[in-house]
Backbone:
């Protein structure tokens, strides 16, 4: 009985939880609600994934109104994978949140933080699960607006500016998206993605459809921080509360990438987007620019959180590179990196959150010698950092391997060298932190530090363990990603 | 235990040892005993596997699939067996030496030193027993990472600087060149397994072979082929036991070992010899060999001189691989063993001199031989072995190498080998001569200087004797190497 309603529960539970948090008004109680909701989500997402892997796509009609009149939720391997990712990251982060939020956010605002977090979770899961282009816009706005608030809750006053900047750019992105959807609706008369996909073939060369694709691409690219539309990201990540950064870095951009995949592959179709239009060239160029430009900027950051934010922009370049290759292996690499990068980067941000919890700063010069005071935390940093570099034995290696193999299969051997070249730059920025942290005498700021309490340490270690585990036994991630890539390349028809 | 279990145990023992060492950090005697016991246990297991291999078996584990197309696996073949024997045997000697050296110099952070050391040995054994390129690459990178804290051990400006060069050059070459070569091989051959006769024959054109070969040879930065050799002198800031076992044996030999493996089991020497695509490598290796020897002549710092000598000697093995015939393969593989024993002795002596007299420069050693006769005698013996003179082990590998060069009709290379031997004579032998016959330095009188602590001397003695023994009894090594299936 309940199992048939899992798709809607995936979205409704966090929504109700958010309301409850707002009404409870007490930080700890709100946290308990958020914890219960967050821990329920992976079970729902996991069972959805198992169902679709076994029996194929699930279609769920909201309120019993069958599509195209009602909104349809449609789960296939692609979005089930993203649902599992988003909900798992949320679940791992929540136990960590209590102490971190308590130390970074004023008591009267803590309940709001959890309410906004749950709203954001609701929005992200909603975008992923819905099969309705306009419904996706609504969820996009829910997740974005709550994300602005989450960022603005940061302790540094510059967080307000960062949130405002993100608000302006995010709104432009959302507007572009909705214009694109509007054009699609005018031309096809439906908002249901499967239906649009069915009708678009006959009219795909018309001007409005081309315009729709352009608007959608730019709008979504803003949300996923594709270079050079990434300018909102570094500040937002740097000044947001630690928990919010870890959560958003792992999920928000990834869900936007999912939406792009959905439109490119499922709605418009591979043949149209990648063969008729020069999307491959544009995305390749931008991805490479991100992989190098953002990585090089990362090397020169003094704020380690900001450094990792730039690293995120670069890593997103890897994922879009996989999309641009648009072949089975390359796309598998892109999708698996979507997952791998999410766990590695949230692990790193959690580690930094622990440092911030102890010494109130993540400036690189204040971290001198902190490895001796927080050995487990900084050990975790090293391992997750190796993941970002793509050392064999970590998840990052798996994604890089498939991306490079995909590039070779496409005949673009030079991309392989760009991929590994960009990893070398990541050696520089990760290595720079490792040097300061482990091979400098213990600095003034770091003197009193020690590893954080278990409730913070364990979530970070879980993600670090996942980084290693999915580098040694990647059958699960690569298997699902390969299946997702196949589904995408076949299209919805 | 079954042979498979033994192979896995050989890798797990040093890892377990690393864990135990960390647990025993409170009591330094127990901790150091754990290192020794682990080293003995590892050597025991490796010799058991050696017995199997000499009886003609090839113990191997099944493949473990990380993801479709990515497999890890272990398999023992004669070349890897030889490498594992060298690493395991010398680890025992080196552990004895380390205990004397680290205590003699009151080095800080000794626990992390022994932990990283054990992990580095585990990685080395992993490299030796890899069944495919991916496994080799995994352990190769782990070896780089686990030795980085050893290089930066002193944690001062110079050490951090050296560590930076070390990490960037080794990780850089392996990421930018080695990894693409592996991915390319995977795509072309459809497998990464080390297979007798190679996996590329009939699948790649001449240009592709030349390109892949270049990527492999320069990508395997641990082989220190010029111009990617700078990490090795940089690594000399590490404590001497690290330089001795890791940067004269384990790390650099992992590099040339990987070169040999790639040439013999990925390309196949027949393919290289027939296509002639390895000809350029002969000259590159020869150039690296001679240049490094000349640079060694100019170095006054003892460890730097030894490091450049290593760069030069590593190029012998690359040269052997490039000659691509079975005699050269035997010579090159043998050189891995002979050079290891000789060079570790030289580094042990350098460390003993530092421990006893706090001297690091060649020019400061005049007259020191009278205070430390044992150390300098051992130095003399090992130096002759490196040069390749009888009655020392080093002569055999050069002999086979020269035969290989003749077999490949590369007469210039025979000359290059001669010239290089003379050069090594010129940069090594003045050191013991000056020490014994030179005028003592002014202050402080050598009377204050005594030989290094006993554990150091035991280690030096053992390896110096090994240099001699290997001259009279090279047959076990040859017997093992003749089993290499070059097709």
Residues:
């Amino acid at each position: 009985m309940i199992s048939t309603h899992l798709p809607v529960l995936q979205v409704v539970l966090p929504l109700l939880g958010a309301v409850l948090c707002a009404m409870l008004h007490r930080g700890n109680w709100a946290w308990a609600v958020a914890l219960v909701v967050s821990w329920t989500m992976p079970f729902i997402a996991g069972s959805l994934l198992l169902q679709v892997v076994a029996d194929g796509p699930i279609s769920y009609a909201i309120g019993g109104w069958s599509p195209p009149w009602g909104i349809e939720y449609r789960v296939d391997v692609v979005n089930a994978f993203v649902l599992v990712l988003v909900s798992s990251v949320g679940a791992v982060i929540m136990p960590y949140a209590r102490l971190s939020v308590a130390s970074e956010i004023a008591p009267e605002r803590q309940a709001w933080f959890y309410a906004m977090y749950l709203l954001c979770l609701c929005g992200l899961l909603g975008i992923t699960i819905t099969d309705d282009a306009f419904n996706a816009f609504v969820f996009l706005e829910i997740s974005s607006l709550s994300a602005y608030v989450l960022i603005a809750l940061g302790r540094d006053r510059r967080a307000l500016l960062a949130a405002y900047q993100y608000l302006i750019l995010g709104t432009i992105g959302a507007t572009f998206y909705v214009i694109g959807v509007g054009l699609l609706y005018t031309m096809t008369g439906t908002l249901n993605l499967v239906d649009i996909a069915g009708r678009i073939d006959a009219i795909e060369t018309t001007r409005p459809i081309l315009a729709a694709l352009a608007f959608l691409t730019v709008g979504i690219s803003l949300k996923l921080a594709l270079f050079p539309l990434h300018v909102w990201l570094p500040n937002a990540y740097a000044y947001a509360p630690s928990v919010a950064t870890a959560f958003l870095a792992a999920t928000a951009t990834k869900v936007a990438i999912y939406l792009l995949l959905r439109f490119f592959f499922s709605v418009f179709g591979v043949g149209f987007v990648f063969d008729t239009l020069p999307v491959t060239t544009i995305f390749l160029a931008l991805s490479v620019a991100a992989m190098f430009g953002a990585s090089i900027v990362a090397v020169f950051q003094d704020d380690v959180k900001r450094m990792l934010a730039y690293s995120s922009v670069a890593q997103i370049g890897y994922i879009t590179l996989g999309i641009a290759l648009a072949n089975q292996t390359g796309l598998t690499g892109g999708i698996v990196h979507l997952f791998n990068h999410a766990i590695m980067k949230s692990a790193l941000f959690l580690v930094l959150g622990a440092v911030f919890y102890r010494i109130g700063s993540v400036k690189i010069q204040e971290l001198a010698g902190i490895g001796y005071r927080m050995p487990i935390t900084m050990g975790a940093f090293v391992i997750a950092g190796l993941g970002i570099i793509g050392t064999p034995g970590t998840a990052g290696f798996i994604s890089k391997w498939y991306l490079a193999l995909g590039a070779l299969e496409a005949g673009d051997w030079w991309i392989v060298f760009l991929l590994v070249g960009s990893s070398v730059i990541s050696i520089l920025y990760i290595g720079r932190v490792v040097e300061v942290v482990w091979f400098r005498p213990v600095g003034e700021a770091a003197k009193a530090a020690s590893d954080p309490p278990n409730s913070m340490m364990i979530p970070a270690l879980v993600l670090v363990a996942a980084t290693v585990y999915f580098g040694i036994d990647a059958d699960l991630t690569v298997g699902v990603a390969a299946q997702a890539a196949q589904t995408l390349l076949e299209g919805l028809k | 235990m079954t042979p498979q279990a033994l192979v896995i145990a050989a890798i797990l023992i040093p890892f377990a040892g690393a864990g135990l060492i960390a647990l025993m950090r409170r009591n330094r005697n127990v901790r150091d005993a754990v290192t020794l016991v682990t080293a003995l246990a590892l050597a025991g297991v490796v010799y058991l596997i050696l017995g199997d291999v000499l009886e003609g078996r090839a113990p191997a584990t099944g493949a473990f699939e990380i993801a479709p197309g990515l497999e890890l696996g272990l398999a023992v073949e004669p070349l890897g067996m030889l490498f594992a024997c060298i690493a395991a045997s010398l680890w025992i000697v080196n552990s004895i030496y380390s205990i004397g050296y680290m205590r003699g110099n009151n080095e800080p952070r000794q626990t992390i030193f022994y932990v990283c050391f054990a992990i580095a040995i585990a990685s080395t054994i992993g490299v030796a027993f890899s069944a495919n390129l991916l496994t080799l690459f995994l352990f190769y990178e782990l070896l780089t990472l686990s030795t980085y804290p050893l290089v930066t051990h002193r944690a001062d400006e110079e050490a951090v600087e050296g560590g930076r060069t070390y990490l960037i050059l080794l990780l850089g070459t392996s990421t930018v060149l080695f990894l693409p070569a592996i991915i390319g091989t995977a795509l072309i051959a459809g497998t990464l397994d080390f297979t007798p006769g190679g996996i590329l024959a009939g699948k790649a054109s001449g240009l592709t072979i030349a390109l892949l070969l270049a990527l492999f040879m320069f990508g395997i930065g641990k082989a220190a082929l010029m111009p990617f050799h700078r990490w090795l002198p940089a690594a000399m800031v590490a404590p001497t036991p690290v330089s001795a076992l890791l940067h004269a044996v384990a790390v650099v030999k992992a590099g040339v070992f990987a070169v040999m493996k790639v040439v013999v089991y990925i390309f196949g020497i027949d393919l290289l010899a027939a296509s002639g695509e390895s000809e350029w490598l002969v000259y590159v290796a020869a150039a690296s060999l001679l240049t490094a020897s000349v640079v060694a002549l100019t170095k006054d710092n003892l460890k730097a001189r030894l490091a450049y000598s290593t760069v030069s000697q590593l190029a012998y093995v690359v040269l052997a691989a490039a000659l691509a015939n079975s005699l050269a393969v035997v010579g090159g593989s043998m050189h891995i063993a002979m050079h290891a024993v000789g060079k570790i002795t030289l580094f042990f002596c350098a460390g003993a001199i530092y421990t006893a007299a706090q001297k690091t420069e060649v020019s400061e050693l005049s007259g020191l031989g009278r205070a430390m006769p044992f150390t300098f005698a051992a130095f003399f013996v090992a130096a002759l072995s490196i040069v390749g003179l009888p009655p020392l082990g080093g002569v055999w590998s050069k002999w086979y190498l020269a035969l290989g060069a003749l077999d490949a009709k590369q007469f210039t290379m025979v000359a290059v080998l001669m010239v290089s031997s003379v050069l090594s004579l010129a940069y090594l032998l003045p050191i013991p001569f000056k020490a014994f016959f030179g005028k003592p330095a002014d202050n402080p009188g050598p009377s204050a200087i005594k030989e290094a602590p006993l554990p150091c001397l035991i280690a030096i003695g053992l390896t110096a004797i090994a240099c001699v023994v290997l001259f009279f009894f090279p047959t076990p090594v040859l017997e093992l190497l003749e089993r290499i299936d070059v097709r």
In short: The two ends of chain B are 32 Å apart (CA to CA).
